[in-house]
Specification:
single chain, alpha+beta, 3-stranded antiparallel sheet
Length: 599
Amino acid sequence: MLEVALAAPYVPGTNIKGEVAGANWVFLLPSLEMTRILCLGVPSSAALRTLAKLAPVEVIVPGKEQRVDQGLSNVTYTLVAGYVSVVLPERHADLLYLADASAVRLFCQNPQVQRHWLQALQPRGVVYLESTGIIDYLQCLAPLKSRFEAQSVFWLTPLGGEAHTAVAAADSATREYFLRLSLHSPSVQPQMLRQVKRRLFPKQERGSIREAAVSAEPSLVQTERTARKVSGFLFQSADRIERSLLRQMPSVRRYGVLLGQPGTALKDEPPRFLQELARSAGIDIGAYRWGFSGRGEYSSRKLLYYLFPPGQATPEFVVKMVRDSGFNPRLENEQRALSLLAERHLNDNDALPRVAFWGYHADLVLVAETYVPGVPFRQRHALAPDSPYVRGALDWLIDLGGQTAQPAATSAADALNQLLARYVEIYQPAASESEFLAQQIATIRQCQRDLPTVFQHGDPGIWNVLTRDDGGIAFLDWEAAEAQGLPLWDLFYFLRSYCAEVARAEQIYDRMDAFSAIFLGSPTLRPFIVDAVRRYLERVGLPAATVEPLFFTCWMHRALKEATLLDARKVDRGHYVNILRLCLEQRDAPLLRQLFSGL
């Protein structure tokens, strides 16, 4: 019972937004198993953290450069007068990373320096460098094309900063696929526009805007909405212009370049380690086109490889890979969950990705899944409760619960008491709050005989819902799945995410305001929510007395999961702990009264 939830550590601050690992380009290398890495120039701190986990890193620092990060134990620094004078030991490293633009230009334009630096590589070692814009294109890429047989050139986005996506430069079909489906990263990011908005609306004024929304004073609210529309228009305009330039002017693109010694097998094929893993399962992807995506602001966000069979416009497989071995359990759980679901023979098994092959490389887990064609739920813009997409997603979750319900082998109350103890430790709630939650768990203990377990998706927000090309619904991203999960949790979470999307459509952008106004307070959606819960109870065979304790323990568990995203000093600002406390305060809200009184 709740095996995954009980095994999770829930350590605050371990997955903070923005502290994502860098150097995504390393996942384009033939192999991540290296003995030593050389850097000419100082990489970003985020890139160094990634490199230092793979192998000892030696950074060559020119002149009086002082921008060094001394906090990494696997990194050493060597100060030199200049790059021309640097002496590199022969056959010393598996990777030579040219992190400085001046080092890139010197390497590309000076054949003598080129030969000397290449001698520092092991026989199968590679050089990685980047170039951006027309000047680099002429001064760097053009000379390299004629001097190196062993080379791979990638189109990268965005144009600056950390590279998030990569496609072989010669592969126009995959590049167009990435642009058309917005899988690339535009150079003007929404975060940049949010920073501008923060300057226009300082903290105290943003507080005034929220107060104005509550008191129905329209002036500040309208100002913020106008700012959102303007920033959205600017972002979309910049993105359209950049797409046009990227399609029509190759010289303005950003390129990543892998170079090897004569005889090194560097081609526009998927990375060697990926091919070897596929071959171990009897699958040959050597001739497949491929694209790489490493987007996201959290270290837990997975790296993705899209694999296209020859002559096919859509991928056959999507390979997921973790950035850090600390997140291996999440992806291992997804592999187990999808394998178990495939064995269950559900009515709509075709809606699920299937595991094609999986394994480990450099202690990092990879899982290849079959590609499910469709359109993300959010792109349908159909939010009415009677929309076939909304109804289809609800029906799918209700059917999942009904088809997988079985008598519990262990006590749900015991598992929930363990989660409650962790919740009290992290959030330190008032005695009345912890006592209330303990009473709810006691109610579950009383209903234990009638409380089945279900196969739980674990993260059924609308961002993980796909509207399939055949008109059906598919739920993606099963890394939080529970084979012996609790009923109703998936349904409550989906309804919350759906109501948040409805709130955005109604220009309610604060998440707590959205939950209060739409989930708890909307008279239009109340019958829809109540009917969904009633149908779930009937399908799964669940007593109505369990609705209230499952509702509150759902948000308790969500608060625990969110703790990893929060600074330990600011856990009380978490969204789900505040949802829990808001619902405690508003137990007499019409929706909750109806849900908790036998519907």
